[in-house]
TrEMBL record:
CHCR repeats lie at residues 777-943. Residues 504-541 are annotated as: Disordered. InterPro entries: Clathrin_H-chain/VPS_repeat, CNH_dom, Vam6/VPS39/TRAP1, VPS39/TGF_beta_rcpt-assoc_1, VPS39/TGFA1_Znf. Its main location: membrane. This is CNH domain-containing protein. The keyword Lipid metabolism does not apply.
Length: 1049
């Protein structure tokens, strides 16, 4: 689709020659060669009736009005006439204000913009407060540059206030002036001399460009006109005019001969690409982002299809348009987008025009667009034939751009996404309200195109930046990565909101499918077939309209020249065409395995970027794989349409359900990607919490024998039944019992009580194989299973295993619940009775010993309950121990004496835990008379017995006489018992504390009396000391010395 509609005439039949035109608001100002000014009101630019003549200012200037402009600050019209510039205030156009300093003027240019001007205020610290710098004030600044003879004069206004006029000398006179920004302007001195002028420094820098290259195509084009005469050859031989036009804030386009060169603000060539016109353009204009140029008659080739339709007898000159042509190019790619020949009637073909003698032609002038390079653009045509010009006059035409939305949609339909993006960048959001939405959409389509071209990193970067639906990103990959989300190559563009089929300018296309790979395995089989582009021989292709994509960059100069000079490349013959596409397809597909690996690597990067962000977003709403991974609906139950309909939006804008689906898609694709490129790292991924869809990857894991990873994945998803079944299948292949059972045992040991039924179900086959190893399932310290249920389950296999489990929890885990202690006692009792019934004395004795030890040492079971179970059995010792626990010691001792006839156990026994009386005897308590009770049972039997109980009674008296009451014992002794039989008892009885204390007291009293008498005797003795008494030791005279008398030794 051409970006502009065919121009429509808005003013026709104007007999005066139009030399200048400008637009301001709804007013169209037209200046003529006679100095008159026509003012029109433009109400509706889409209809001819919208143009109304408002006023004609006769003789506004004495001579031709060469240029018109408008200064918004002072609401004045700028008129260049008679080498002078005059300001006419609107709407009265009087009084005029000539700019006296701008004499000998050749051209001018006006530039207005809002600048933020900082106030020049000195800081004042006298008040003591901190100085606050004032904010810049937005100011409307307008500059008027007038190119005079060898100088430039600069007028400027700030919010309507005139500023000081500046001047700068130039080496040449500026014929054309084009503002780039408020500080830079491009001057055109002549068709070959240009300069870049800096307003801040008031200096001009000459522009140097490479020498033009004369192409063979251009020479051929000129040679094609050797037989032409008249106006057609005049167009090609006309003298070039200087031409310069601003195409952006940093670039200007200048015309040198037949070349258009893009120059930057530094006065250097800013682009390597340039425009090559078939002849020097007569005029240039710019409507963002398009460059308009007027090309002379006979310089632009007509379409090759029109030439072929004329038949073999067609003359060579018929392949060129014999009239002037308005050529429209993209300022982004500098490629031709549209050629509009005169007359501007789409129903008239240029090849149907009459010969040179009667050809219809007109001079075309691109006068001025509306402000800021916006559509519409106005041009003036005047018939070259004087008679026709006098009869018809001049006509003003209006160029109207097609809506931006239509242009972008057309580029998208043509598959030119990069071109559509470049066009979107030039559009203001004010004229395209949905610019951002369209940009996101086109960027996504361009990313798909990049992916298709092998630019995987660029595509993934775009998807990350756009927060794109991960389901659609994954859909670009083969089935071994994307699973059921995989979409064939031809469905990528429709999936991303593009057209179902991309229009092609070629009349034929070729699609080659890799049939040879159909029998290959996995990787080769899952690579989609490459769709081949067709060779396009048509000159004005869609890419050439606003080409910025890969094709525009890779075009050779010869191809560009051919599109302009009328020598397009000929279509390839049928066989050559097929060979060309096949070779191109082979070049691409030979690297498909490597491309697959690279593409999956970039997918892993994308998924790794999405995964933590999704995890954080889900955790914010308290959703984690640990608490809900096994509860949410599987991804396989959601249709692909629903997954593809997930919004392309930031994670914060998604609902929890949408976040869950995205997390499932990301983790599942990440697993599959690791299977393809990094299988060794799959284990670490399986062991962490994830949202992977197991059904999508388990078959691949099984096929690759990644059983450990699959088990970890099952475990993370709480699919324990599947994991344990897989462990069982793997264990059946092992010959060693430990290798067969231990993996399942270790897995079961880590399951919690919520999976108790699964533990019981799986452990059955392990118990059937090796009960001892199976017992370890329930002795794990990692989890604490409900012990009552475990005991009941184990009892169903074997009472010994159940008892063993209870012994473990009581002794090792210090379980104090009475129900488990009662259960263990019941198991002991049941096993004892069963063993006795079977006649297995060894087992009976072992278990009965455990029962007795349990009864003696345990304090957490219910004694009454156990005694009720034992009361009807012949387990007398156990009954006796329980009676002792109940405080019924007489009954317990009767069982020892009358039933068991085991007197030693009744007294003290060999085993300290089983000696009854010694165990329960406590002096000063209710059990202090337990030995006396046993003696009474011996000497006063309550049942008839034939056993001789006097001997054990006397032995009891002899061994435990300190623990027996002497008086009670003597009363219990039969009359026939002699003193000799109880001699030891009697001696000990006399040594009781009551007797021993009295004897000691009397002996102590006698000793004290003896000592008193001895002291009195010694105190009655006297010693006489005289002067002659001599010391028997030292033989000295005692005299008056102090002496002491002591008892002799």
């Amino acid at each position: 689709m051409a970006p502009f509609l065919y121009p429509t005439p808005i003013v026709s039949g104007l007999k005066e020659k139009i030399d200048a035109l400008t637009v301001q608001g709804d007013r169209l100002y037209v200046g003529t060669s006679t100095g008159n000014l026509y003012i029109y009101r433009v109400e509706d630019t889409n209809s001819e009736e919208a143009i109304t003549l408002v006023e004609i200012k006769k003789s506004l200037a004495r001579r031709s009005i060469e240029q018109l402009g408008f200064i918004r600050d002072i609401n004045s019209l700028v008129v260049l006439s008679e080498a002078g510039v005059t300001l006419f205030p609107l709407p009265t156009l009087s009084p005029p204000t000539p700019l006296v300093k701008a004499k000998a003027a050749f051209s001018f240019a006006v530039h207005s913009e809002i600048q933020h001007v900082e106030l020049d205020i000195k800081p004042d610290y006298s008040s003591g407060s901190e100085f606050v710098k004032p904010k810049p004030i937005p100011t409307l600044v307008t500059q008027l540059l007038v190119g005079c003879r060898r100088k430039v004069v600069i007028y400027s206004w700030r919010d309507g206030e005139a500023q000081e006029v500046k001047e700068a000398t130039l080496p040449h006179s500026a014929r054309i002036i084009s503002f780039l920004d408020h500080d830079t302007a491009c001057f055109a001195y002549s068709p070959t001399d240009y300069a870049m002028f800096s307003i801040s420094t008031m200096t001009a820098v000459d522009i140097s460009t490479p020498l033009p290259v004369t192409t063979s195509a251009g020479a051929s084009a000129m040679g094609a006109f050797t037989g032409l005469t008249g106006y057609m050859t005049l167009g090609l031989g006309a003298k070039p005019k200087p031409a310069s036009v601003r195409i952006s804030k940093t670039e200007a386009l200048i015309a040198k001969d037949s070349e258009g060169i893009v120059i930057g603000t530094d006065a250097k060539v800013s682009r390597s690409a340039k425009i090559e016109w078939p002849a020097p353009p007569e005029e240039l204009a710019f409507v963002k982002p398009y460059i308009f140029s007027i090309l002379p008659p006979g310089s632009v080739p007509s379409q090759s299809t029109e030439l072929s339709s004329l038949g073999p007898s067609a003359q060579p000159q018929s392949s060129f348009i014999p009239t002037s042509v308005v050529q429209i190019r993209s300022s982004i790619s500098l490629l031709t987008t549209q050629n509009i020949p005169f007359p501007f009637n789409p129903s008239v073909s240029s090849t149907s025009l009459p010969g040179p003698s009667g050809a219809i032609n007109a001079t075309i002038r691109l006068l001025t667009p509306s402000p800021s390079g916006k559509s519409p653009l106005y041009l003036v045509t005047t018939p070259t034939d004087r008679t026709a010009a006098a009869a018809d006059g001049s006509t003003i035409w209006q160029f109207t751009m097609r809506p931006w939305a239509e242009q972008i949609d057309e580029l998208v339909r043509d598959g030119q996404y990069a071109d559509a993006l470049a066009l979107l960048d030039t559009i203001d959001e004010a004229v395209l309200p949905d610019k951002n939405t369209r940009r996101i959409h086109v960027r996504a389509l361009n990313a798909v195109s990049d992916y298709r071209d092998g630019k995987f990193d660029d595509a993934i970067d775009t998807f990350i930046e756009l927060d794109f639906n991960p389901a659609k990103v994954v859909a670009l990959y083969p089935e071994q990565v994307a699973g059921r989300l995989s979409v064939p190559r031809e469905g990528w563009i429709p999936l991303y909101g593009g057209p179902t089929t991309i229009r092609s300018d070629s009349s034929s296309s070729l699609s080659v499918t890799n049939e040879a790979d159909k029998g290959q395995d996995s990787q080769d089989k899952l690579i989609p077939a490459e769709s081949l582009d067709s060779h396009t021989p048509v000159t004005e292709s869609i890419r050439e309209r606003i080409g910025t994509g890969l094709g525009a960059i890779m075009r050779t100069k010869d191809e560009d020249r051919g599109s302009v000079t009328g020598k397009p490349k000929k279509p390839l013959p049928g066989s050559c065409f097929v060979k060309y596409n096949i070779m191109r397809w082979l070049t691409i597909t030979l690297h498909l395995p490597d491309n697959l690996h690279r593409s999956v690597e970039t997918l892993v990067r994308y998924l790794s970027d999405r995964r933590p962000k999704l995890g954080a977003a889900l955790e914010a709403v308290n959703i984690t794989p640990q608490n809900q991974s096994h509860e949410i609906a599987p991804l396989s139950e959601t249709s692909t349409e629903e997954l593809f309909s997930l919004p392309n939006a930031p994670l914060a804008a998604l609902t929890p359900e949408q976040l869950l689906r995205c997390a499932q898609i990301v983790d599942t694709a990440l697993y599959k990607s690791y299977l393809v490129i990094r299988p060794s790292l799959l284990g670490s991924l399986c062991r962490v919490s994830n949202w992977c869809e197991v059904s999508e990857v388990e078959e691949d894991l099984r096929a690759r024998q990644k059983f450990a990873e699959l088990i970890d994945l099952y475990k993370g998803k709480k699919m324990h039944a599947q994991a344990l079944e897989l462990l069982r299948q793997l264990g059946e292949k092992e010959t060693d019992v430990e290798d067969k059972l231990m993996p399942s045992i270790i897995y079961l040991q880590k399951l919690g009580p919520e999976h108790l039924e699964q533990i019981f179900e799986t452990s059955r086959w392990i118990f059937a194989t090796d009960p001892n190893m199976a017992f370890d399932i329930f002795t794990s310290e990692d989890v604490d299973l409900p012990r009552q249920e475990v005991s009941d389950f184990l009892a169903g296999f074997d009472l010994k295993i159940s008892a063993r489990f209870l012994e473990y929890v009581i002794e090792e885990r210090h379980e104090q619940a009475s129900v488990l202690h009662d259960r263990l006692a019941e198991l002991y009792l049941s096993m004892t009775l069963s063993a006795k019934k079977r006649g297995d004395e060894q087992t009976r004795n072992d278990v009965y010993t455990k029962l007795l030890q349990f009864i003696s040492s345990n304090h957490h079971y219910s004694v009454d309950r156990l005694y009720g179970a034992l009361s009807s059995t012949d387990l007398f010792e156990a009954r006796a121990l329980l009676l002792g626990k109940l405080g019924r010691h007489d009954q317990a001792l009767e069982l020892y004496v009358y039933r068991m006839h085991d007197y030693l156990k009744a007294e003290e026994g060999v085993n300290s835990r089983r000696r009854y009386c010694k165990r329960v005897y406590q002096p000063g308590t209710q059990t202090h008379a337990v030995f006396l009770t046993l003696l009474r049972i011996y000497l006063r039997p309550t049942v008839s017995t034939s056993a001789d109980l006097l001997s054990p009674a006397l032995d009891l008296i002899s061994r435990h006489n300190p623990r027996l009451d002497a008086v009670e014992t003597l009363h219990l002794l039969p009359p026939l018992v002699t003193a000799q039989d109880v001699r030891g008892f009697l001696i000990e009885a006399l040594r009781v504390p009551i007797f021993d204390t009295s004897v000691t007291r009397h002996i102590s009293k006698a000793r004290d009396d003896q000592l008193s008498r001895t002291l009195m005797l010694l105190q009655t003795k006297r010693v006489k000391v005289t002067d002659s008494r001599i010391c028997p030791q030292c033989h000295k005279r005692i005299g008056n010395s102090v002496i002491a008398v002591h008892a002799p030794r």
